[in-house]
Each structure stands twice: as structure tokens, then as C-alpha cells.
UniProtKB/TrEMBL annotation:
One Pfam family, short name: TP6A_N
Span of domain Topoisomerase 6 subunit A/Spo11 TOPRIM: 194-360
Record keywords, A-Z: ATP-binding, DNA-binding, Isomerase, Magnesium, Metal-binding, Nucleotide-binding, Topoisomerase
Name this protein carries in UniProt: Type 2 DNA topoisomerase 6 subunit A
Subunit structure of this chain's protein: Homodimer. Heterotetramer of two Top6A and two Top6B chains.
Species this chain originates from: Haloprofundus marisrubri
Record's function text: Relaxes both positive and negative superturns and exhibits a strong decatenase activity.
Length: 366
């Protein structure tokens, strides 16, 4: 393990111990132990006009031991802090799912979690109050499987030491799998011109098979649907540290537009990490409603839930631009949606030879 990683682990462990010490100090001072957090409701999430990301508002709530329910929550927090600190001390890691099951073996039944949502939320609470990410606690989600394919050489930290990998030459057709904590990756050198985030595995495979990454210096990031935190983090690092433009390529429906929104502006669920995960400069390449019209793509009709989602997006601060207002209203007018793979109706090479070069040219990327 490198010295930088050791220092990061020690910092995370100290923050956790400091939290536990605060509870002890409150006890010693004759106070009822409590923990203050931002109120984690949709009404307390704000779109920051300066940073262009979702952030928590000013409202807070208090977890206090002055009630049985509050005391149980703090008890669970103490047991979780103890587990995470020990995990860091031993240089081990675990998944969010494992934490839920592990709590069943704790010596206090009251400290066990009722379900995984409860344990997930507590880990997020600890992130907020400690200002340390769960990745630095060595907590992993279940495998996301998201990958990179492009002209980038990296150095990554593994349990067997450091290794260098080229994300085209040293990987198979599946690409380089993004680790749980992308901050353990060091960018060495690259020939990337832009980052292309792709929603579906089928489109990602089409781009790689057609050599789009090699022909255009593209770093193809497979979002695998709604992107995991690690995927959004490495995308932000590629933009910020290598000064690369980022474009997002999804299906043409309201749920996919929200995938773009989570890459660019962050999500409500992880508002406390928006500045760490979101890339506000990311642009949307398609599928646009205008593409459905221009290319006469095969479509499906909009469902009632699609229509409701589109109307909601017209009120969403993330989509309050002339471009999005025009595109969403057009989609509501035509009543249709289309998948990325619908471009194959014009041939398997159409997306790489025509559609993306034309769209990226219009956007000034190519």
C-alpha cells in the first residue's frame, strides 16, 4: 500500500474516531448525545446556480438520544463507526450489503439494522458529518461493472502492489473495469480528445467494435444505466485533471435525460457529494427528440409516466435552458421516444460513421 493511501486511510479513521469521541464528550459533559445533519428531504435540496450542482439547503435535523428511537439510531452509528474503524485498521473492505448482514452478529441486537436501506442511509449520514466518502471508509457497493475503453495509461493501486495499464492495449474488448474508488488511479499519459459517456452496453460494444475510440481519440465510459458513484467520479477526474470535454450519449427518453443530469449536475440522493461527483460542463449529445424527427428513427409511444416525467423536467432547474425546453416540448408534441440502438435501422456503421461525427462536429468536439 502506498504512503498516500495509508495517509488517506488514517485520515478517514481519525474522522470516525472523532465522531465517536464527540458522543463521549457529550456524555461526560452531562449532555444528551446528539448528531446534527442536513435535513435529507427533497424540499431541502437546492440547485446551486454558481456551481450548477445539487446541494443541501440550510435546514438541519438532529439525531438525539432523548428518545428511544433516537438512542437506537446513535447506538447503530457507534457500532458502525467501530466496525469501519477496525476495517480501516486492518486494511480490509466490505460491501454495503455485507454491512447489513454483519450487524446481525453484533453483541447488541438493538444495534442491528432492520433493512439495507437503513444501513445505507447511516453510511451516508457518516459521510456527511465526517466529510469523508464511503470509498475512503473502504465501503463498496455491489459490483457495478462499468468500464473504460480509450487511449489512457494509468497506474492503479492493488492489494498486490502497483500496476500500469493501458485502457486499450492491455485490456480485452470488455475494457478496463472502473474500481470502487477511482481516486486510487493515477493518470500517466493519454491521447484522449474527449470523453464519451454511453448509457447502454449494446451501444458501448458497437462503438468499440467499430473502432470509434481509436479513430477519434475517444475515452468511452460505459455508464451502465444510472451511473454508479465511481463512474461519475472518474468522469469528473478525466474532465478536471486532463482538461477533457465530456459528452453524454443516452436513449431518447426522460429517464435517460436524468442519467445525463446525474452526470452533469449530481443527484438528489448524493447531494452532499455533488462537487466531488458532478461534471457541470458535460454536454448532451443524444438521442435528441430532434434526431427522432430528422432520422425517422424507429420509436415507441410515450407512456403516461414518460409524459409526466417530461413535464416534470420542464420545471427541473437542471433542464431550464432554451435547448432542453425546445427538445422536451418537441418530444411531447410527437409523443415518441427512441433507443440508442434505433440508429442501427440505418446500418451498423451509421452511428460511428455519420451520427456521432455530425453531432460532435456541431458541438465543436470533433
Amino acid at each position: 500500500m502506498s504512503s498516500d493511501t495509508e495517509l488517506q486511510d488514517e485520515k478517514a479513521r481519525e474522522r470516525l474516531i472523532d465522531l465517536a469521541a464527540e458522543f463521549y464528550d457529550q456524555f461526560a459533559g452531562g449532555q444528551i448525545p446528539e448528531m446534527e445533519l442536513p435535513t435529507r428531504t427533497k424540499s431541502n435540496i437546492e440547485y446551486d446556480e454558481d456551481s450548477h450542482v445539487w446541494v443541501y439547503g440550510d435546514r438541519t435535523s438532529t439525531r438525539s438520544a432523548n428518545s428511544v428511537r433516537g438512542a437506537r439510531k446513535l447506538l447503530k452509528a457507534i457500532y458502525t463507526i467501530d466496525f469501519l474503524a477496525q476495517q480501516l485498521d486492518e486494511g480490509r473492505s466490505s460491501t454495503l450489503r455485507e454491512l447489513y448482514y454483519l450487524s446481525e452478529s453484533w453483541d447488541s441486537k438493538e444495534a442491528g439494522f432492520n433493512d439495507q436501506d437503513e444501513s445505507n442511509q447511516l453510511v451516508e449520514d457518516l459521510e456527511i458529518v465526517s466529510e469523508v466518502t464511503r470509498e475512503d471508509f473502504h465501503m463498496r457497493p455491489e459490483e457495478s461493472g462499468a468500464t473504460l475503453m480509450g487511449p489512457l495509461r494509468i497506474r492503479e493501486q492493488t492489494r498486490r502492489g502497483e500496476r500500469e495499464i493501458h485502457c486499450q492495449e492491455d485490456v480485452g474488448e470488455g475494457g478496463y473495469q472502473i474500481p470502487n474508488n477511482p481516486d486510487t488511479i493515477e493518470f500517466l499519459d493519454h491521447d484522449i480528445e474527449f470523453v464519451l459517456c454511453v448509457e447502454t452496453g449494446g451501444m458501448r460494444d458497437r462503438l468499440v467494435e467499430n473502432g470509434f475510440d481509436e479513430d477519434h481519440g475517444a475515452m468511452v465510459v460505459h455508464l451502465k444505466g444510472q451511473p454508479a458513484r465511481a463512474t461519475r467520479r472518474i468522469t469528473k477526474r478525466l474532465h478536471d485533471e486532463l482538461d477533457l470535454p465530456v459528452v453524454v450519449f443516452t436513449d431518447g427518453d426522460p429517464w435517460s435525460y436524468r442519467i445525463y443530469g446525474s452526470v452533469a449536475y449530481g443527484s438528489i440522493k448524493s447531494a452532499h457529494l455533488s462537487e466531488y461527483l458532478a461534471t457541470p460542463e458535460a454536454k448532451f449529445v443524444g438521442i435528441q427528440p430532434q434526431d427522432i424527427v430528422d432520422y425517422d428513427l424507429p420509436t415507441d409511444p410515450l407512456s403516461d409516466s414518460d409524459i409526466n416525467a417530461l413535464e416534470s423536467e420542464l420545471e427541473d432547474p437542471r433542464f431550464q435552458t432554451e435547448y432542453w425546453t425546445e427538445q422536451i416540448n418537441l418530444q411531447l408534441d410527437i409523443g415518441k421516444k427512441a433507443e440508442q440502438q434505433a440508429l442501427a435501422s440505418r446500418g451498423l456503421d451509421f452511428v460511428t460513421d455519420t451520427y456521432l461525427p455530425e453531432r460532435l462536429g456541431e458541438m465543436g468536439i470533433l
